[in-house]
């Protein structure tokens, strides 16, 4: 009725141990790269938003101006990062030429 963990591990075929360590390591390196690039983007975007918001005129009441400023500082850097990652993805697709016609090497 109940199966032991050893039985289920044998049924899965040790899929976790069959994968080479380089595959897991390259995935971790890629994740660290994405995190570092995203952190850099957020820093640059925050500085950019700080510059943009400081150049905008005041919107009347200080309470409303503070609330709009908080919303602006929260939403804009994240929105810019999404736009930047989308642009990077589109540019890599545009310039990545993949040969769709596979030629037979014996021809």
Written account of the structure:
Keywords: Membrane, Transmembrane, Transmembrane helix. The chain crosses the membrane at residues 29-50, 71-88. By secondary structure, the chain is mainly alpha-helical. It has one domain (5-95). The protein is 76% helix and 0% strand. The protein contains 4 helices and no strands. The longest helix is centred in the middle third of the chain and has 35 residues, at 21-55. The model has no long low-confidence stretch (mean pLDDT 81).
Largest sheet: none
Strands, count: 0
Q: What structural class do you assign from the helix and strand content?
A: mainly alpha
Secondary-structure element pattern, one letter each? HHHH
Transmembrane segments: 29-50, 71-88
Keywords: Membrane, Transmembrane, Transmembrane helix
Q: What's this, in brief?
A:
The protein has 107 residues and is an all-alpha fold. It has helices spanning 5-12, 15-18, 21-55, 62-95. It is elongated, with a radius of gyration of 25 Å.
Break the fold down into its secondary structure elements and pairings.
Blueprint: H1 5-12, H2 15-18, H3 21-55, H4 62-95
